[in-house]
Each structure stands twice: as structure tokens, then as C-alpha cells.
Amino acid sequence: MLSLNGSCSLNNSLYGVSKTLTQSTQRNISAPPVVVAAVSSNGSGYPLLRDPHYNKGLAFSEKERDAHFLRGLLPPVALSQELQVKKMMHNMRQYQVPLQRYMAMMDLQERNERLFYKLLIDNVEELLPVVYTPTVGEACQKGKILEVLKNWPQKKIQVIVVTDGERILGLGDLGCQGMGIPVGKLSLYTALGGIRPSACLPVTIDVGTNNEQLLNDEFYIGLRRRRATGQEYAELLDEFMSAVKQNYGEKVLVQFEDFANHNAFDLLAKYGSTHLVFNDDIQGTASVVLAGLMSALNLVGGTLADQSFLFLGAGEAGTGIAELIALEMSKQTGAPLEEARKKIWLVDSKGLIVRSRMGSLQHFKRPWAHDHEPVENLLDAVKAIRPTILIGSSGAGRTFTKEVVEAMSSYNEKPVILALSNPTSQSECTADEAYKWSEGRAIFASGSPFGPVDYNGKVYVSGQANNAYIFPGLGLGLIVSGAIRVHDDMLLAASEALAAEVSQENLDKGLIYPPFSNIRKISAQIAARVAAKAYELGLATRLPPPENLVEYAESCMYSPNYRSYR
After folding, report:
1. CA 258/CA 493 separation, integer angstroms
2. How far from each other are the two terminal CA atoms of the chain, in whole angstroms?
């Protein structure tokens, strides 16, 4: 486990964590480093059982037990990995509290890495909400970040997820305790996108916290000071980004995660032209929502340009989604981007964003300030704009009221309503409310999962606009192509690939997203589309391009299945 901490005049620090993961050799094919082949144990006896990279528990065969001095250290029965998975899931389902499931999963990851990923891959829909975990680390002085990265034993890092813990899952400023998000996201890069665990590095940059409860908590493990800002903050981020590029090369993907709005947009703009960077809150959310809208058009008819959009929420997610929709409309129609933006309206905490508010707007809201009289609340905005599509990214629960949904339904035969905020308590409305208040006519998806709804004798099943549909496949596509930059057209390609995976059977049920059970195949399709776009844009470095990008992406995906030891 690697940990980083730095101090300077403001005592800034950086914490980084990564599991020591599977040592592997590559298959004898022309492929990038994500390809994994058979492993041979580098230990025997008791140490082998304590090594999560090689331990198989009761799945060691009779021959392996003799060859590696395991007789007497294990019960006599030998189980298959499939039976281990079945037993683990039986045990997991006995826990009534989600935190207990989380602890069981993390304990498994520490004991048996391959079984952990096998369990997650085979039961992704059930275990997806369980895999987020807090982790912390130790130390290095500011100015020595590169030195610490060089001390880390894994040299071929391909994906870094980094946060400063300021805006965690609608929970706010968690300081260094926000590490759970990078660790969880990287678990999904491996389970859903097939990125080798040993190629993943989660990092939390601890610059303090403004959370008074944490500052006054004697057990808080982070810096006990208010957040650094301005030049000190910028210098630390700049040193980190430079060290990452110097140590891991130009093709390492850095995903910014859960940064506050004022930093998230600036970091993406600053490093987007010099590094391979991606912000899941801005770009990942936008891509998955655009895919859902593309699917929804099969139910409502028309094109994106035929629709009018109203957002509740104008932060990272809302403006990111709006911009990608505008880009796709511009691409489809040939109209200027500024013209496409006029079809999209946003409501923030002060009401409809209009031109008369321009002087007080944050820079990322200004492109959405259109000519219109001021409107103070969402219901009045719905009545004024009469949108065909209503999207919530506000983090404010139950704001799509009965009156709002009924108004949407009065203007549209099939109103598209996306309540994207997480967790469930923050969702703008529930599936039950959307279907009942629209008299069963709404096309609904949400950020949080909701069960089927029975209304007037018909069962409605809603989809979940989960970023996990996009970022694992996007990351795989960037890696297999050796991309050096993330381009907006790659995000559009990812959206198109995801929308193409929605079958007519799904649409007949009202679903605008495909089932998660097939997510690794979906990720391979997304990876192929992203890689193809990288080659088309001249941003790919892995040459020559493979003849079949889907097959190539699948061949590069990590497998958690046990390997035979010699």
C-alpha cells in the first residue's frame, strides 16, 4: 500500500493508495500491458495463503497443495471458484446492513483478489453499490511527489482516479476520508472495463477540510486545517500532474473525481490540452445521459434538435450534460454550437438562468444565459419553457413535485424525466411518483436505482443513468489505442455505442439503458468506438490499429479466473 503526504508553508498533503496487485506476464500477442496471462506463485506454504494476489483459498488443487506445501494448512475439501462465489454471495446476502456487506467485500479483497473481482463481475448489479471504501495513507514532503511515486513498486500505472474530497456523493466535504470514491471507481475500472488492478492507483490530495465536524473530531486522520486555496492549491496540483506524467508517461489516464465546481472546471480546462484527463462528474455523467436521451428518442420520436431541454441544477453535472447535448445537436444539424445551446435551459438556486443575470453568474453558467424574463422557480420555468425533456442534477430531493410532473405531462404525450441526483434521498422524484403523476406516460430514468412500479395493472421498469456504463469502457478504449488526449468526440462515440446496446425488448419495457448484467460486453463495444475515434483524430499512438477493435478490446480485458500454479 502506497501513501503520500506532503507539507509546505500551508502544510498541504497528498494521500495516495493502491493495492499491491497481480504480478503477471503478457499473452504472446501484440497487445498493450492490460493483457494478463497465467501467473506462477512466488511463495509457498503459509505466506502463499497470506498473499491476496495468489491466494485461492480452498480452490487450491490436490497437486498444488503438494507442490506448494499447503497440506495441513487447509481443510481437505477442494472447491471450484464458482462454488466459492456461490458461497460468498450466500454469506453476503445474510447481512442486512450495507456497511456489513462493504466490510465483507473489503476483507475478501485483502485475502483473495481474484475471487473479489470474480464475485463483483458475476454479480455486478447487486454488488455495484457496495464497492466504495475509505482508505488512508502516510507520507512525503511537498516537492518530493515524484520521488514517492518512484518508490511505488508498480511501474505500469495506466489509470489514476484522484480527488481532493471536497464534494463527495452529495455528502459534501469529507477531507481525506473521501478516498472511498477513487478506490471504488477503480474497482469498477477493473470489474467492468477489464483494466488490470495493478495498473490502477487511487489518490486523495489532502489540502485540509472546511468541515467543522471533522476539524473538531479527535479521531479525524486528515490535516486539521481549513482548505488551502489559490496559488498553494494550484502549485500542489501542478506538481502532482507533472510528477504523474514524468513517472508514468503521457498515456496514463488521470480521472478527476468529486472536486468542487470552482476547481473541477478549471482543472479540466488547464490540463485537458497537455494531459490525458477526464472528469467523470462533468464528462462521464454527460455521456451516459446523452446515451439515454438517444435511446429515448426511439420512444418519443424526432431528433435531439426537435426537443427542448430544462435542467434543474447548473453545476458540474448539469452544465456538462447540457454541453454534450449541444455538441451532439450541432454535429447532427451542422448548426453552430451557440445556436444549439439555445434549445437548452437551466434552473439554479436563484431561478432560470437568463441574460439579465449575466453579471453575477459563474463562468460555466454563462453560455446558458438566454433572453427571457426572470423566472424564480422550477414549476414556473416548466410552464414558461414547456420542455419535452426534464433533467434533474440538483442534489435536492423531491423537487420534481406532483405539479411539475403533471405540467410536463400536460405538454407532452411521453414526457422524458431524468431524476439523476444521488443518493436515493436526493433524487428529484421516485420512479413511483414519475409514473403515477404522469399517468404511466413518463419515460423515466434515475441516478439511484428504483424497483419496478405497478400502476393500473401494468409494471413499469425504469433504467439507471449510472456513470459505470461509460467510464470503464472509455478508459479501456483510451488504453488500447494508446490515446494521449480525451476529445469531446470520444465522449459522443461512447454515448452512441451505449445507446446502440439498448434492444427493442428493452425499449418495449420503457428502458432506455441496457441491463448491467452484460456490462463487460458493453464496455468492449464502447472501448472499440472510443479507440476508433482516437485513431480517426490522430490521437492514438498504438500502431498499427487492430483490424477488429471489439475483439482486441475483449482480448485485453483482465480476467479474475484462477490460474494454475506450477
Report:
1. 24
2. 27
Question: Are the C-beta atoms of residues 54 and 565 closer than 8 Å to each other?
Answer: yes
- What pLDDT sits at residue 170? 60
Q: Which residues pair with 205 in a beta bridge?
A: 14
Cβ–Cβ under 8 Å, residues 368 and 333 = no
Looking at residue 1, its pLDDT comes to 32
Measured distance CA(86)–CA(34) in Å, rounded? 28
Cis peptide, bond prior to residue 544, ω within 30 of zero: yes
pLDDT, one tens digit per residue, over 440-491 is: 999 999 998 899 999 999 999 999 999 999 999 999 999 999 999 999 999 9
Q: 454 - beta bridge partners?
A: 459
Catalytic residues: 132, 185
- Indicate the SS3 state at residue 459: strand
Whether omega for the bond prior to residue 515 falls within 30 degrees of 0, making it cis, is no
At 548 the pLDDT is 97
Question: Which is it for the CA torsion 113, 118, 121, 123, positive or negative?
Answer: negative
Q: Which amino acid is at 476?
A: L
pTM score, two decimals? 0.86
**Cα angle, residue 171 at apex, residues 165 and 173 outer, rounded to 5°:** 35
Q: Distance (Å, rounded) from C-alpha 180 to C-alpha 204?
A: 9
The pLDDT value recorded for residue 44 is 84
The answer to whether 392 and 447 are in contact (CB under 8 A) is no
Helical H runs in 142-205? 145-151, 180-193
SS3 assignment, position 227: coil
**Which cell goes with 547?**
483490424
CA-to-CA separations, 497 to 273, 463, 477, 513, 524, in angstroms, rounded: 25, 17, 12, 11, 10
Pairing of strands 159-163, 200-206: parallel
Which stretches of the chain score pLDDT less than 70?
1-43, 132-142, 169-170
Question: What are the angstrom distances between the C-alpha of 276 and each of 185, 414, 478, 486?
Answer: 17, 40, 9, 6
Q: Which residues contact 528 (CB under 8 A, 6 or more apart)?
A: 477, 497, 549, 550, 552, 553
Task: Put residue 222 in one of left, alpha, beta given phi > 0 → left and psi -120 to 50 → alpha.
Answer: beta
Close Cβ partners of 555 (under 8 Å, ≥ 6 residues apart): 27, 29, 31, 35
